[in-house]
Specification:
Structural class: alpha+beta
CATH architecture of the largest domain: Roll
Strand order of the largest sheet: 2-1-4-3
CATH superfamily of the largest domain: Bypass-of-forespore C, N-terminal domain
Number of helices: 8
Oligomer: single chain
CATH topology of the largest domain: Ubiquitin-like (UB roll)
Strand content: 15-25%
CATH class of the largest domain: Alpha Beta
Distance between the termini: 109 Å
Low-confidence stretches: 28-40, 70-79
Radius of gyration: 28 Å
Mean pLDDT: 81
Amino acid sequence: MLKVNKVNLVVGVVLIITVFLWVQVNQNPQKKPDYPLTPRIKLSALPDDINNSLETISQRIKKSNTNNNKFQLNFKNLLHRDITEDTPLVLQTYYEGSQEISEMITEMPPSFVGLNLNQLSQYLDEWSIKKFEQGRALVIYRSKSGLSPEDKEKQYLGIKDGQVAIFYGKKGSGVLKQKTSILVDNLPEKERKSLQEGIEINSREELLTILEGLASLNQD
């Protein structure tokens, strides 16, 4: 009899603690989010690689037994707030070649809604969770080699192995596209200095004009 009473007492204490934790997590009404649902925050047009990445994650979630695991009652899950549909998703990509972070904001994918951070992290692959404030933002982060999409559109003239060369990216940290046959040592000092600093190119026509001018100086 005494043993049964002890078991009942333990069960009662566990139930009380469970209810208390549940109330603590859910008793405060959610503050109305001020982003991205207000006009102050503009949602981003996501590039194809991010769209494909999110779709892959969503497919993984759908194929799993998320619905069976999501509502399991345990102390660990009670202490982690679930992701809500009114929380914006912020995607940060660090491009090693550009040495900068690109940030985009989009609506929360439906497949993410209802998961907690522990559950979501199982499906993120190249992404990791950086920050989460329910109703305000879920920030996920990844690192990629190469240049950012913006820097891939930029070009400049510089020097490589003593020759005039064309680079992608920002001056001083770009990626070599092509070397020309123009020797830097044969150019006037003014042009050599400009090439050392980097000459920004805004169009193909401008590139051809500058190269023709450098080639004529190289022959003189």
